What does this fold into?
Amino acid sequence: MLQRTIRKNLSVVSATVRVMYSGEIDRAYAAAERAVAALADLPIDRMTADELLEGRARHERLARSLSGADRRPLARLAELGTVDFGGGRLGLILADRLRITPVEAGRRLHEAADLAPRQLETGELLPPQLPQVAEAERRGDIGTGHVKVIRDFLRDLPAAVALEDRISAENRLADLSTRMRPDEVRRCAHRIAAYLNPDDHFTERDRARKRHFTMHPQGADKMRTGSFCLEPEVSAYLEAIFAKLASPGMCHPEDPEPTVDGVPDPDAVSRDTRSPGQRRHDALSAICRDAVASERLGSHRGLPVTVIATVTLQDLQDHAGVATTGGGSLIPMRDLIRMAGRNMPYLCVFDDHSARPLYFGRAKRLAGPDQRLALHALDRGCTHPGCPSSAYICETHHLREWADGGATDTDNLTLVCPTHHRMIGTDSPRWRTSRNRAGRTQWSPPQHVDPSGRPRTNGYHHPEQQVGGFNGAQPP
Ligand SMILES: [Zn+2]
It folds into this structure.
């Protein structure tokens, strides 16, 4: 009884404090917004070039200070975690609320972790990881371009470099950044790296830390760029493979029967006008096709590792439009038909606007391959509001739990990424899932996240439904 009274009083206190701070936040931002409006109203038409340039410098300082003032609140948000928002990744929640990309949200959170004071459990504040950089940014002397150069430099230093050398390098670069452009500071950073690591000595751990293979989002032309940093071993494999498969005349997609083994005939070599970069691309394509066709890659989440593409029956018959892959990218129909001629991708064909569910009995706990294919077509990826996770990495969730008698048929199944799968439950601090009348999975937030409990759906994987028709054309 006493405990309940204390808890009730505490919640009243916390609600009052929240209202108090909301007022303070409102007043501070209202003042800043009035100041920004005054800047936008300056009579720029009557200003000289000198005045305009000087104004830009002051504007830049202001923008930098503003970005510096954002560090501590972001770090505090990371300390508080995502319980109040119903769980999940903070980067994604922030990206949704601010309407910025998840990559940008991640960058801001990582920078905040380096540039904001750190709070101990006792409430005591420790200086930031990069105190000089944080201070220079707070004054408006350096911007995010400088911050990136310095953080990249520190990240790429070998682990063997002593802490005091790292600190003095940070101080020097922060100081140089107050009077140089980021591109100039980067040249200085390279020079300092050479002083600190004169023999270019990197341990296996240093190299392993930097390895990555990153694909950027697909462009409007369906092409995809990316970046990579390969360990010497991977690079050695590729060199050996490219020496053969990327030589002139090999793996040429324009040949009726591209040569992938043996020596290409001299005619094929002389016809080959591809650049070395294009030949390496085509060689990579041949390797991937071979790996998928070999069936040595086994299965993943109940389906063979291969391209899973969903298309409408109409598009397939017309050889037009695009297919959506389980990875969330688009393939032009003629490319898909060519792929199907070589090794069969898993196709999930459905009527123009509906993914017709396939019914199966409650024979197995795991969703069968046909049901998973139907889910690729229906959900295309994680169904949690705003989640960009593709169908390939999603788990299958029973809308009505199997333990409660929920059947393993497509009507009762939906795709959910592992992070969001853990957030579902019937008890109160968890999200609940159900199917709405349109056949889409909807998520009802926990009471403390949204007292209205209004269910939400994920439009991320269905952009055509967000856009609707355009210039008279109907959604594909
Ligand atoms: Zn998700």
Notes: The chain has 18 helices and 14 strands. The longest helix spans residues 2-40. The radius of gyration is 28 Å.
